[in-house]
Amino acid sequence: MAEGAAAGRFVESLFLSAAKIITFDRNKPLTNASGFFFERDGRLFLVSSRHVMYDGPSKHFPDRIQLEIHVDPENVTRSTGFSVPLYRDRKSLWRQGRDKAGEIDVAVIELDREALPDDTVYSAFGPQHLLGASDIVEVGASVLVVGFPLGFHDTLHHLPVIRQAGIASSFGLRFQGEGYFLTDARTHRGGSGAPVVMRAGPAPDPALGKLPWRLLGVHSARLDMGTRDLKLDEALGLNCAWYADILLTLTDE
Question: Any idea what the CATH number is for the domain that residue 226 is in?
Answer without folding.
Answer: 2.40.10.120
